[in-house]
Every structure is written in C-alpha cells, then in structure tokens.
Amino acid sequence: MEYKQEFAQAEERIQAFWARDCIDRCALQVIARRAEPLPATGAPLAPLAADAGIVARKTDVNTVLWHAEETFRTHHYLAEAVPIYVPGLVCSDTAAYLVDEITITADTVWYPHIIDDWTSAELTFDRSNRWWQLTLGMAEAASERAAGRYLVAVPDFQAGIDIVSLLRGPERLCIDLFENPDAVRTATRFVFDDVYRHCHAEIESIIRKHSKWTGDWMGLFSSGSHDVVQCDFIALVSPRHFEEFCLPDIAWQCGWLDTAVFHLDGPGAVRHVDALLEIPALDAIQWVPGAGSPSAVGWLPMLRKIQDAGKGIYISAPPEDVEAILAELSPAGLIISVEGVFDSLVDGQDFIRHIADVCARRV
C-alpha cells in the first residue's frame, strides 16, 4: 500500500484484534510527521480555493480527496494506523438522506426537525436525494483512486433512533417514548430497513470493487461487512427504555454485520454497559469518556469488565498513559489509538518498541 508500507503486518494484527487476540503486543494506532512529504501520485486533483466557502469545499469531491491525500502523504501511519478516507458529510449522514436543506459548518452538520407532528410526519428516502448522491459520488471517486494506496470507509451513518432524535429533537423524543412509543418504533425501523440497509450495502459494493477491506471513521478495518454501531441517545434514557427502544436495534445491527464495534460515548451511557455486553454478535466497544471526564486510564474497572465479558476494546490515550493502561488490561483484543502526532518517524517507532517490551513483560 502506497501510504502504508507495512500494511500486511497491520492486517495481521487487526485480524487478531477481531479474534480478541494479539500478536506480540496490543494493537496500536500511531501517527508521526514525515520530514518530507511523499510525492503526489494519481490523477491530479484541483481543489477549490480557501475562499470558496465551507459548504462548497466540504461538498466538492476533488477538494475533500485532495485534503485527505495531502494528510496521507505528509504523515507516517505506524503500527496499526492506516490511512482511511471516509466519504460523505461524516456527521450522522443518514439524517441528510431524509431531508433537503441542512446547515453545514466547519466542524458539524445541523439537521432540521422535520418530525413536528407524528400524525402527519412521513419519513421518505428518495434515492435521488442530493446528499445521498454526493456520498455515492465521493465513494466512487475515492474507491477508484484508493486502490493500492489507502482504504475507504463506510460513511458515518449512525443509523437508528439517533437519526430520529436528530429529526425530532432529543427532548421531544424522550417524551415520545412515553406518549408516542409506536410512532418512535415505526420511524426507527424505517431508518434501518428502508435507508441504512440499502445505503450500507451499496457503499460496501462500491468499496469492494477495488479493495477487500472496509474501513470506518475510527480507523479500524475488516474483510467482512463492517460498521461502527452507534446510539448516542442511550445517554438520555433509563435502562428500561434502553432495553425497549435501543437494545433490540443495536443487537440487530451487530448481527447483520460481520464485525461490529459499538461507540460508547460518555458517562451517561455507562449504565447500559452490562446490557451491551450480553449481545453475542458485538465484537468490541470503543469507550469515549467525553469532555470533562477522566481519560481512559480513569475507567480501568469498567474496561476490565468489558474484557472479562469477552469483548474487544478500542480506546484513545496520550502516550504517557499507555503503560498504566497495560498494567491493568490484557493486550489481547485491545487497540489503543495514541493521541497526538509524534514529531518524527524515530520517535513513533521508539514508542511502539517500548510498548512491545511492556506487553512482553506482562506475558
């Protein structure tokens, strides 16, 4: 792979991660700056100028691919870090496929609350929707350019009740769980059955034209059907409502995929961990402590519980915390995304060797 010379070794270690195992050490994602960029290759891209406006630049295929490839050629992707391009708006994209007008900013996307009255609300998915067509165009262009150079991911679909929450508003949806439960179930089922399953399958078919690997937005990849399973709405609901409105869909999505990692976001979601661990088809959990909470090293008892239940773990941590994490967690089925960018290739390689020694001493 052009931007990842040691891809075969990374492939082997990621396969071990999915099997809840490891080779020599835990899996790591490590990034370092290149002293000199790699030469630009592939057909030349013509990005829009910076003054073109944020919407134009984030929706112009040449521009987004140019920025991605500039990042790839100016950084070393070490250990199990792999250059991966994510098509689409990369922000709960499924919601965009159900509306026309959205608000795009530099770091997020805002969706209109089109579900105002359940008696008249009707969600429809028009395959000519411009945001879906944009995602398809990005995936097609990237998949063709990426062959032998980098990986392409499925978009940040974030399917299910999260999409209903975006289009209804989370506060109103919480009340709906009591007052309009059947309408909520119908809308959530529509998102999965009529939108997500179609969109995920079509994007994966595009990716598979040029690669056997499907990536995701957190940098993982799999040779099977793969996605990040996400339900941020669970932070707002009780265990009873979680088991009634969220857990069945999470379990269904995990079972529909070959490899599934659940994005567990913030302390409000922690009360549902035990229920999540009961899902047989769930392979791994990504723990994100959230702003204002202790970093991953402050959540080791919960992370040990996840490992003890036979699930893999994906966490982010600063370099100085990794050794303390490995003193408590098994390297098997563990991947640590090391925060920040190392100043040089040597610094990144020295860190990886040190962590390999730490893991060897533990064994």
Helicity, as a percent range = 40-55%
Query: By helix and strand content, what is the structural category?
Result: alpha/beta
* Largest sheet strand order: 2-1-13-12-11-10-9
CATH class: Alpha Beta
Main sheet summary: 7 strands, mixed
> What is the typical, i.e. mean, pLDDT?
97
pLDDT below 50 for ≥5 consecutive residues: which ranges?
Answer: none
- CATH architecture classification name: Alpha-Beta Barrel
Number of strands: 13
Using only CA atoms, what is the Rg? Answer: 21 Å
How would you sum up the global shape?
A: globular
Number of helices: 13
Number of domains: 1
Tell me the strand percentage band: 5-15%
Q: Could you name the CATH topology?
A: TIM Barrel
Strand/helix succession: HEHHEEHEEHEHHHEEEHEHEHEHEH
Give the distance, in angstroms, between the N- and C-terminal Cα atoms: 32 Å
Describe the protein in words.
The structure is a single chain. The protein has 363 residues and is an alpha/beta fold. The protein has a single domain, classed as TIM Barrel, CATH 3.20.20. The protein is built from 13 helices and 13 strands. It has helices spanning 7-18, 54-59, 61-73, 93-96, 130-146, 161-168, 170-179, 181-207, 239-256, 273-277, 300-308, 319-326, 345-362, and strands spanning 27-33, 75-79, 84-85, 103-104, 109-110, 151-152, 214-215, 221-222, 226-230, 259-265, 284-288, 312-317, 334-338. The strands form four sheets. It has a seven-stranded mixed beta sheet with strand order 2-1-13-12-11-10-9. Helix 5 (130-146) packs parallel to helix 8 (181-207) and helix 6 packs across helix 7. It is globular and about 60 Å long. The two termini are 32 Å apart. The model has no long low-confidence stretch (mean pLDDT 97).
